[in-house]
Design a protein that fits this description.
Elements lengths: L2 E7 L5 H11 L7 E8 L2 E8 L2 H4 L2 H6 L4 E7 L14 E3 L5 E6 L5 H10 L10 H14 L7 H15 L5 E6 L3 E6 L8 E7 L2 E7 L2 H6 L3 E5 L5 E5 L4 E4 L12 H7 L5 E2 L2 E2 H23 L13 E4 L5 H11 L7 E3 L12 H11 E3 L8 E6 L6 H12 L4 E6 L27 H8 L3 E4 L2 H9 L11 H4 L9 H11 L1 H9 L2
Parallel strand pairs: 16-19, 19-20, 20-21
Antiparallel strand pairs: 1-4, 1-10, 2-3, 2-4, 5-6, 6-7, 7-8, 8-12, 9-10, 9-11, 12-13, 14-15, 17-18
Helix pairs in contact: 4-5, 5-6, 9-10, 9-14, 11-12
This protein binds 1-O-pyrophosphono-5-O-phosphono-alpha-D-ribofuranose, glutamine and magnesium ion (MG).
């Protein structure tokens, strides 16, 4: 995942600062690089670099990011390399001058690179799949005869992208001197929402990965961009939408957005992430009741499975822990305090950095642990970096027993749609039973959510969604183009050793 955004509108005299604010609200989606491109009366202003939003943009950059429309991106690298050359937005000067920001991963990049070089005679300067996507779009737009109304030409170019590109893509783009566009892949794997704001000067539109960005800037959530849908918005406040043939079908969104990636205060495809996480906690409590009775776990304190307290693993474990504690009828306690200046560890590149950061990020309050059976609740266990260290900390702080609960099922399969889980052997649950994972992480008892329950938690938010991308849990890749050879290629290119080497040479 990455965060993407676009803003345009009649009264929008200063898109730059607003894009900056939107990106800081989307920071949790990508901490590695950030960029903004604005249309300063037909002249492109672009600033991008590795780093957090607050570090990449200095006042002098903001002064240069003038103009009333533009796009922004914060990056979590999941394809190509972590160099600042692959920070986004990408730009090509023809036709019109185009900039593009992408969330997701293409799954046929190698073939597209060949086509772009051989048939389309286009130059690619990086290893980024997003640069490929921009060049496909640019080539398709270039094919439209002069005089075609621009929104139609952009929509036809989006048809071309859908025809040629496979995988997951939520896109915002800027057509210099004209307007902004957005596109979501035919399954709608990655999220994208449209917002609208009315001012005395007219109507403005914003398109963003998550609705929290709209909230923060005072835009009203109009709708989600539908699966396969293309959207055009211009400085005159016009919004035009072209649903794809598949748009009347519900999306197949990535369920991991609801588990971990998205902020809880976001709405995605009609689902409140917060409510979905509350339901996850309730279902997890039900699973604890079921498993405790199946395994005959005795209680020595009159509470379910003898659990004295429920504690969240900050931040993303918090919502599920809250409702789980209530359902179990057990006190909820904050046993770990988070250092607010350390970002998310899972989306950091490189395992060494992630491991160091967990300890810098979380510190226990010993009095909450001494002599107790503690139930630690996290949203998910992926590589096991967080839980292994946390359980050790809980024991050092005096916990008598550690029950570890994951609001998501075991993550056993790689992700190919824009989450950095490339190598199955790096996933702690890969090839291990729940009991073996418990032993590996040092838990006395480990409880995972069932997949059917997780899906039910998300579906309850929008029953029209029939299917989610649950590939990291069940190995079913909804785009239908992923085979063992492809997965092996991803593993080879992006395993931890390969990424550590790439980071060292960045
Ligand atoms: O098993 P692992 O490989 O450690 O991955 C899972 C952990 O990583 C994430 O936390 P993170 O620190 O990224 O973000 P958060 O503050 O939003 O919880 C997630 O919430 C889990 O705690
Ligand atoms: N996670 C993402 O959405 C990444 C976008 C793009 N594939 C990149 O690696 O830069
Ligand atoms: Mg976490």
């Amino acid at each position: 995942m990455c965060g993407i955004v676009a803003i345009t509108g009649s009264s929008n005299a200063a898109a730059g600062p607003q894009l900056y604010d939107a990106l800081s609200v989307l920071q949790h989606r990508g901490q590695d690089a950030a960029g903004i491109a604005t249309d300063d009366h037909g002249r492109l202003a672009l600033r991008k670099d590795n780093g957090l939003v607050a570090d990449v943009f200095r006042q002098k950059h903001m002064n240069r990011l003038a103009g009333g429309q533009g796009i922004g991106h914060c990056r979590y690298p999941t394809a190509g390399c972590p160099s600042n050359a692959e920070a986004q937005p990408f730009y090509v000067n023809a036709p019109y001058g185009l900039a593009l920001a992408h969330n997701g991963n293409l799954t046929n990049t190698a073939e597209l690179v060949e086509d772009l070089r051989q048939s389309d005679r286009r130059h690619l300067n990086t290893t980024s799949d997003s640069e490929v996507l921009l060049n496909i779009f640019a080539h398709e737009l270039q094919q439209k005869p002069a005089g075609t109304p621009l929104a139609d030409a952009v929509f036809d170019a989006c048809d071309g992208v859908r025809r040629r590109c496979r995988g997951a893509y939520a896109v915002t783009g800027l057509v210099m001197g004209h307007g902004v566009f957005a596109l979501r892949d035919p399954l709608g794997i990655r999220p994208l929402v449209i917002g609208r704001r009315e001012t005395l000067q007219g109507v403005e539109h914003m398109i963003a990965s998550e609705s929290v960005a709209l909230d923060a800037l005072g835009f009203e959530l109009l709708d989600d961009v539908g699966p396969g849908e293309a959207v055009w918005a211009d400085a005159a406040g016009q919004l035009v939408r072209r649903p794809s043939g598949a748009a009347h079908r519900p999306p197949v969104p990535c369920i991991f957005e609801h588990v971990y990636l998205a902020r809880p205060d976001s709405m995605m495809d009609g689902v409140s992430v917060y409510k979905a996480r509350l339901r996850m906690g309730e279902k997890l409590a039900d699973k604890v009741f079921r498993e405790a009775s199946r395994l005959g776990i005795q209680s020595d304190n009159g509470k379910p499975a003898g659990i004295d307290v429920v504690m969240p693993i900050p931040d993303s474990g918090r919502t599920a822990a809250l409702s789980m504690a209530a359902r179990l009828g057990v006190p909820y306690r904050e046993g770990f305090i988070k250092n607010r200046y350390v970002g998310r560890t899972f989306i950091m590149p490189g395992q060494a950095e992630r491991r160091k950061s967990v300890r810098k990020k979380l510190n226990p309050i010993p009095l909450e642990f001494a002599g107790k059976t503690v139930c630690l609740v996290d949203d998910s266990i992926v590589r096991g970096t967080t839980c292994t260290q946390i359980i050790k900390l809980a024991r050092e702080a005096g916990a008598k027993r550690v029950v570890y609960c994951s609001a998501a099922p075991p993550v056993r399969f790689p992700n190919v749609y824009g989450i950095d889980m490339p190598a199955p052997e790096e996933l702690i649950a890969h090839g291990r039973t729940t009991e073996q994972v418990a032993e590996e992480i040092g838990a006395d008892w480990l409880v995972y959510q069932d997949l059917a329950d997780l899906v039910a938690c998300s579906r309850e938010g929008n029953p029209q969604i029939e299917r989610f991308d649950c590939s990291v849990f069940d190995g079913v890749y909804p785009t239908g183009d992923i085979d063992a050879g492809y997965l092996e290629g991803v593993r080879e290119k992006r395993n931890d050793a390969a990424q550590t080497a790439a980071l060292a040479s960045r």
